[in-house]
Fold this sequence. Notes:
Oligomer: single chain
Helix content: 10-25%
Distance between the termini: 20 Å
Number of helices: 1
Strand content: 25-35%
Structural class: mainly beta
Amino acid sequence: MDVSNHFLVPKHSKLSDSEKRQVLEQYKVELAALPRIFRSDPAISKLNTKVGDLIKVDRLSKTAGTSAFYRVVIDG
């Protein structure tokens, strides 16, 4: 079963290196300070990730519309 297509799993997308730099500059944060996601997580298994990649998670909300959250890929 492909969990990334399940209606309860928010959209996950891998950011390019330039997008990654933009996010880190915009929020004035180091990569190590961001929440982590395991490379083996089923939600990102088809994104061809490597350790250090930045994942954008778009969550739907009834009150806020769509909210973006960011996770850094770690081994596991």
